[in-house]
Amino acid sequence: MAEMLIRKSLGNLADVSSAGTIAKPHDRMPDEMLEIAADLGVDGTEHEARYLTEAHIVRADLVLCMARTHRKAVVELVPRKSRRVFTILEFASIADQHDDRWVDASEVDPSVRFLAMVESFRTRRAQLVQDGLLVDEDIVDPYGRSRSTYEASVNQLVPAVESLVRVMSMTSKPNL
């Protein structure tokens, strides 16, 4: 769902893909999520799960995870990318506290602006962790649970995606 919401919002400003740490390749979205996706104007009928591999992580400029356990799995798989791995709620929280100080208006290359933003967020995360101020939450995993749990998950995800899109729209063409 996160991939589809981000892609819908950013269009061609970013290359977006998703993979799961326990995904079964080619699994489809559960009916509950398909219905909620449709309510949000997203068609998930063609979405197929895929298992996260090192190759997915290596090519990404930013890796957003739904939960801390996913973030840990990503960092264990490719430790050198740890500076670019966030939970989506962590990233959104930082985005909500952040202004555009990291945007160098003189920098024409959007990729450089994007990477400067990610580095700025990494630095801010380190400071928040040090100060004990980072609220590090997970998106509720609704798989196999009630429709209300799917709704709770999406209710966490939508505002996080909105925060992400707000800061991402200042740059373009990252790989997520």
Write a concise synopsis of the structure shown.
The chain has 176 residues and is mainly alpha-helical. The protein has helices at 2-10, 31-39, 54-59, 68-77, 88-97, 110-130, 147-168, and strands spanning 63-65, 85-87.
What is the helix/strand order? Answer: HHHEHEHHH
Shape: globular
How many individual β-strands?
A: 2
User: How many structural domains can be distinguished in the coordinates?
Assistant: 1
Describe the main β-sheet briefly: 2 strands, parallel
Quickly name the level 1 CATH class.
Alpha Beta
Tell me the number of helical segments per DSSP (H or I, 4 or more residues long): 7
Reported by name, the CATH topology is Rossmann fold
CATH homologous superfamily (4th level) name: Response regulator
- Chain-averaged pLDDT: 87
What portion of residues is helical?
40-55%
- Determine Rg (CA atoms, Å): 16 Å
Low-pLDDT regions: none
User: Structural class, please?
Assistant: mainly alpha
Strand content: under 5%
The neighbouring-strand order within the major sheet is 1-2
Q: For the terminal residues, how far apart are their CA atoms?
A: 14 Å
